[in-house]
Amino acid sequence: MEIGELLGLEQLTWGMLLFVVLAAFAAGWIDAVVGGGGLLQLPALLLIPGIAPVQALATNKLASVFGTVTSSVTYYRRAKPDIRTALPMAAIALVGSFGGAAVATVLPPAAFKPIIVVALLLVAVFTAFKPEMGAATRLRFAGRRHHMTAGAAGLVIGFYDGMIGPGTGTFLVIVLVALMGYDFLQSSAKAKIVNLATNIGALLLFIPHGSVLWALGGILAVANVAGSYLGSRMAVARGAKFIRVVFLVVVVALIAKLGYDVWNENIAPGVALL
User: Fold this and answer.
1) Which of 103, 84, 72, 77 is CA-nearest to residue 197?
2) Which of 9, 123, 162, 244 is 20 to 30 Å apart from 156, CA to CA?
3) pLDDT tens digit string along 25-40?
4) Model pTM?
C-alpha cells in the first residue's frame, strides 16, 4: 500500500511527505523562538495534491498544538513566565479566536491584510532602530491596568488568529514587548501559552466538522514537537538578543507573505484589466 493511501491522501508521495515533515520541524523551531511557524507549515501542506484548504488548516493546527505544548512547558520550566498574566490572556484569546472565525464567514480576511502589512512595516522599522527595546523587562502598567491591557491584547490577537492566522505568535511577541514592556525572552514564553489557547480554540471548531487528517497530523506533530523543543531550549540559552534577531527575520518574512497576498488579491487583478 502506498503512503498516500495510508494517510488518506492518494496523491501524497514519500518525497512530498519528507518535505512537509521538514517544514513542520522548521516551523516548530521558529514558533518556539518567536512565532510565525505557520508561514512554513501551512503553505507546505497546501502543496500536497488533493488536500482541501480546510484540511490543511485543521491539520496544521493539530501539529501546532503539540508543538506549542512542548515549547510552553520548556519555557515554563526554564524562563518562569508570570502565568498570572499569561493564563487569563490565553483564556480571553481563545474566546477571541472563536469570534474571529465567525467574522471570517461574513467578511473576507483580504480586507484586513493591507492594514496588517502597514502595521508590520512600522513594527519592523521601530524594532530595528530601537535595539534597547525588549532587552530587559520594564513593565509599563501595573495592577488592574496591566491585566486589562493583556486581556485586550489577547482578545484582539485571538480574533486575528481565528480570522486570518499567519504570524499570531509574532503579533503576541510584538504586543508583549512594545506595549507591555516585557523582554523578548519573557514575551516568547507568554506568547506560547496564549498561542496554545488559540490553536485549541480553532481545533474545537475543526474536529466536529471532520476536517483534521489525523494520521498526517500525527506525523507532523512529532516533527513540530522536535523543532519546538530545540527552539525553546536555544531561545532560553541565548536570551533576548538572539530572539530579537529571529523576530526581525520573521517579521520581514511575514510582511513579504501578506504583501504578496495583498498584491494577488487586490492589485494584480486591476493591473490585468488595464
Assistant:
1) 72
2) 244
3) 998 998 888 777 877 8
4) 0.78
| Tens-place pLDDT, residues 132-167 | 666 778 888 889 999 999 999 999 999 888 777 767
Grid-cell match 487583478, residue found:
269
> 191 is written with which cell numbers?
506568547
pLDDT reported for residue 111: 62
Q: What does the domain layout of the chain look like in residue ranges? A: 10-266
